[in-house]
Amino acid sequence: MIEKHLWHPVAQTADLTAAPLPVQLLGQALALWRDADGRAHALADRCPHRGARLSMGRVTDGRLECPYHGWQFEGGGACRHIPALPGFAPTARHGACAHEVREAYGLLWVRLAPPDGPALPIHDLPAFTAEDEPRLRKVTSGPYTVAASAPRIIENFLDMAHFGFVHEGWLGSRERPDIPAYEVAATAHGVRATGCRAWQPRSSIHAETGAQVEYGYEVTGPYSAVLTKVPEAGTTAIDGLHESIGMFICPLTEETSLVWTRMAMNDFDSPDQRLIDFQNHIFSQDQPVLESQQPKRLPLALDAEAHCAADRLSASYRRFLCDSGITWGVTR
């Protein structure tokens, strides 16, 4: 399953402190924890001894200790101490299953298995990294737990035609629902759309009037995408407002997902909570519609659902999923 070879977000970096953190990814339970040097690790949330959840344990001397019998595991999964047998040297048979962890964009990312070929990196998104782009402020909203498949959620993120109906009075208007033609091109990691335009009554918390907003979309992986939006000059409180929003999804199961949005913008004055509240409101409008869609898994067959010209980006996204061999959260 190719999805096991991809990096997936599982938690916010700040959520992993001194105590182990239980998370789920692709139907598997994992225990996240930090060693004495602060490095994040992920083990299967099941002790190989008697099956207790390791996330219920604690970190002792830089090792994850099982809550049941006190077995201690290093970040690579090796068991280093069995209290009941202090003189015993544990073997590989006593080890726990370990997975790779990376930290990027304010999130912890896990890969369940290394790829057979060249390593697949976390997509490089400089705008969302403070060190690479200090001129943009970074704020994360979520997580949102959604009873929908990850591909359904990404496709909704890429869709402008729903603005006037789901986000009426905010991102769109029933009186101006038209979506002009735009360009879509395949990339090495997904698809990119340029020249997307939509009229919006309130495109952000800084909007002072309705505006024609230009969007750019980039699918950066099967379950992640980024948009940039540029309102008409003179329609926002911040001159030259620049705003990028990344959507990063953890596929919990085939039909449930955990969603974060990562904002990068040249607004350094608004309180974090004001920015987060706006995203929370917009996503609260999307969520009931997403959870109503049937089938819950995104159908990739061309004749499974009707399409129109405004769906050009989502159709390209579906082709990308099909060509990539994605099976999780889709039907073929």
Explain what you see.
The protein is of the alpha+beta class and 332 residues long. Helices cover 14% and strands 34% of the residues. It has four helices and 19 strands. Strands 11-17-16-15-14-13-12 form a seven-stranded antiparallel beta sheet, covered by helices on one side. Strands 1-10-9-4-3-2 form a six-stranded antiparallel beta sheet, with no helix packed on it. A four-stranded antiparallel beta sheet has the order 5-6-7-8, with no helix packed on it. The chain starts with 7 loop residues before the first strand and ends with a strand. The model has no long low-confidence stretch (mean pLDDT 91).
Task: Note the topology.
Elements: E1 8-12, E2 21-25, E3 28-34, E4 40-44, E5 58-60, E6 63-65, E7 72-73, E8 79-81, E9 98-104, E10 107-111, E11 137-146, H1 150-157, H2 163-166, E12 183-186, E13 191-200, E14 211-221, E15 224-231, E16 243-253, E17 256-265, H3 272-292, E18 298-299, H4 312-324, E19 330-331
Parallel strand pairs: 18-19
Antiparallel strand pairs: 1-10, 2-3, 3-4, 4-9, 5-6, 6-7, 7-8, 9-10, 11-17, 12-13, 13-14, 14-15, 15-16, 16-17
